[in-house]
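Catalogue entry: protein

Sequence with per-residue tokens
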Amino acid sequence: MKIDKIPAILIYMLFSSIFGFSQNNTRSPYSLNELGEINFLGNISYISMGGVDSAIDSIEFNINNPSSLAKLKTTNYQIGTFYKSTGISNSLLNERANAANINYIAIAVPVKRFGFGFGILPYSSLGFRLQTSEEFNNENIIDTRFFGADGDINRAFVSLGIPLNKYISIGTSINYNFGKFSYEKYNQYDGINYGTYSNSTSEITGFTYSFSSNISFPLKDDISLNLLYNYNLSDYLNSYNTEFIYTSTSALINEESLGDFVDVDLANSGLENTSLLVPKKSIYSIGLEKTNKWFIGAQYENKMSSKFENKFLDIKNVSYRDSKIFSIGGYFIPDSASLTSYWKRVKYRFGIKNEEKSIIINNLPINHFSLNLGLGLPLSGLSKANLGLEFGKTSDERSSLVENYVALRIGLSLNDIWFIKRKFN
């Protein structure tokens, strides 16, 4: 592929992906967390370091850190994909769910006094199918009880990074979030022909904002100390809700199966238009880096999510706490200038992450741990392919429902030069 063909192709993919992100990215009961399970955790190159964002790369825009645009030297085109296979188990069952999709598409451009970037990504997903056990049904004289949900929130963003001086840079991102969640409930009682169904939807839209600052102190021997602070403002997304309830002898509505049908007047109860809190979040990251040789860093993230509530759903056994994440990670390159060995020029990445998730189910907090490995494979010029492999576990403190997963991520970071006048044709 010629480099001059890349911008048109990626811009086409950027806008066509608005329609392509509809595929659901999760089948986890824990995706009921806040605005769903977060799909976008960062660039593949940074996820592979446990999510530590304080490493500086002058040829790749860090989407989670808009101040990185101030350091960008070349126009950068990025696309990331993922495949995730999850085993879900408890005392009664053991199932496997698979998901795959585009993870992000972004373009970043350096100009004379700043850098800017834009892109789109599937921010979060909701997706699960829950059914009560036979023991519960017998105790409650019920034949079947079912609760399912699916949907996504997508995010389009514009970012700006400005260098204040040689060592300090700042940046900001404006995000437009849009998507739809659908919910389905079903109750079937013994001895009654008609089951009771409830179908509801939430159409979600709104803006969110983030700011970041980056300081890079030169030490000695090309080693620098990197400090990063990232702040995501607290805001609200608008949720337009609908619900209808009907009785039927079948989940499919037709003249023969349908009994009663009610379009619920949510405006009368104040639930037609509700607000969903996007909690404020602070990220602190520190790292030591030797240019084109190695990096080691640590990161702490605190999200004030304990006040989150969804008045429309109002699920009684779900509550929230403040979320905390601690990560460590890094990379090393054996010999970035090697002419005899390709594998000596590869960037080898590693990281671990421990997370206290915000969701609490049946008074049991949910926790998550992951191990990450990755490769940065040099391509022609300054471009590279990024590979990431993640092994993780999510469960409550009693391991009453355990999710073990493996995720494979593949991405491209391609580079070109814009807005620089050629001296020779």
Summary: Residues 1-22 have pLDDT under 50 and may be disordered. The first strand starts at residue 37 and ends at 38.
